[in-house]
Amino acid sequence: MIDPGEKDALTTGGPALPVLLRGVAALGSLKLTLTLLVVLVPAIVLAYNSEQWRSWPLALPLAGLAVNLLAALLSNPAFRRQTALIVFHLALVALLLLIAAGRMSYLKGTLEVTEGAWYEGGALTSTDAARWHAGDLDQVRFTNLGFTIDYAAGVRRGPTRNHVRWIDEHGRAREAVIGDQDPLVIEGYRFYTSFNKGFAPTFAFTPATGETIVGAVHLPSYPIHQYEQTREWALPGTHRKLWILLDFDETILDPAQPSAFRVPAEYQVIVRDDDRRWALHAGEAIDLPEGRLELAGLRTWMGYNVFYDWTLPWLAATAALAVLGLGWHFSAKFRRRAWDA
C-alpha cells in the first residue's frame, strides 16, 4: 500500500518545513499505524466481552487508523501520481470511518410476537444499542401470520418460514415470507426469525367493570423446554398472579422420523391460583374475584433477532470501490510490463 521508500519535502523534514505539514507527516507515520493496530487488539477483546464497552473501544482506534491513513495520503507523493491508489486508499479511509460510525449507532435486540398479533414498534425483549443510536423503531409495525418449521429425524431443525404482514412507507399492506437468513426490513431494521419459538395459550379476561382484554401467555421455548411448559402470569390490570401449565400427551416432534412444528390437537391448560386449580379446554371459563377468565385457544409465538446498522449499504459500496481501485492499479501496472515469450 504505502511505500516507505517514497519521500518528499514532508518526510525529509527540512528546517523550513511548516509546523502543520510536520504534524500531518507525523500523523501518517508507520509508527503510529503500528501503535493503533496494537491498541485495536485489546479494544476488540474488550468490546466483545463487556456490555458497557461495546462502542468506544473499537470506534476510537478505527477512527485513529482512518486519520493516520488520510495523513499518509496527504504526505506521500506516490499517491498524487497514481489515481488508482488514491481511489483505493480513500475507500479504505471511508471503510474505517464507516465501521467506527456503525459501532456508535448500531442496535441489536430480540422480541417475541404472538401468532396473529401486531408488533407495535418500540418495545424489545432485550436490547444492545450504541450510545448514538437514533433509528425510528417506534415507527415499525408488522404482524406475525404464523410459521412452519420442518424437522428431520433426530429433531434437527430445518428452515423457518414465517409469514408476515406490514405497512410500507406508502401506507400499503404488504406480505412476505422471512426466515433465519431472509429478514423483514423496515425503517432500516432487519428482523430475522430465531430458534426461539413456542406455544401461547390465549385468554379473554372480562373485568367486573370494564371491557374484555385479550392476551397471550408465551410459554418457554419449545422443544428446548418441552417438559417445562409453565409460566407465572399476572392477570391484566390486577396484582393477582396465576400459574399456567400447558398439558398434552401428543408427540409433536418425533425423534425417530421427520415431523413439523404444530400446536397439539388435544390439550388442556391448567390454571392455578394458590390452592385452587382448574383444567380448561378452549371456550371454558372460570370466575375470579376480579372478573371472568376464558381460555380462547392455543396459538404459537415467534422470537425475532433485530439488527440495525445504517452503514451496511455504504460499506458494501465502499468495499466495491476499493476493489475496483486496486484492480485498476494492478491492471495498469501489468499493462506496462511486457509478457514473457
User: Would you report the number of β strands?
Assistant: 16
Name the structural class: alpha+beta
Largest sheet: 7 strands, antiparallel
Quaternary status of these chains? single chain
Total individual domains = 2
Distance between the termini: 30 Å
Order of helices and strands: HHHHHHEEEEEEEEEEEEEEEEH
Average pLDDT for all residues: 85
Helix content: 25-40%
Number of helices: 7
Shape: elongated
List the uncertain runs: 1-13
How big a fraction of the residues is strand? Answer: 25-35%
The value of Rg in angstroms is 29 Å
Please provide a written account of the structure.
The N terminus is likely disordered. The chain is α+β, with helices and mostly antiparallel strands and 341 residues long. It is 31% helix and 35% strand. The longest helix has 24 residues. Helix 4 runs antiparallel to helix 6. The radius of gyration is 29 Å and the shape is elongated. It has two domains: 123 residues, no CATH class; 200 residues, no CATH class.
Helix-strand layout with pairing:
Layout: H1 9-12, H2 19-27, H3 30-49, H4 56-75, H5 77-81, H6 83-105, E1 107-114, E2 118-120, E3 126-129, E4 141-152, E5 156-167, E6 173-178, E7 184-186, E8 189-207, E9 213-216, E10 230-234, E11 241-247, E12 259-260, E13 268-273, E14 276-280, E15 285-288, E16 291-308, H7 312-335
Antiparallel strand pairs: 1-3, 1-16, 2-4, 4-5, 4-12, 5-6, 7-8, 8-9, 8-16, 10-11, 11-13, 13-14, 15-16
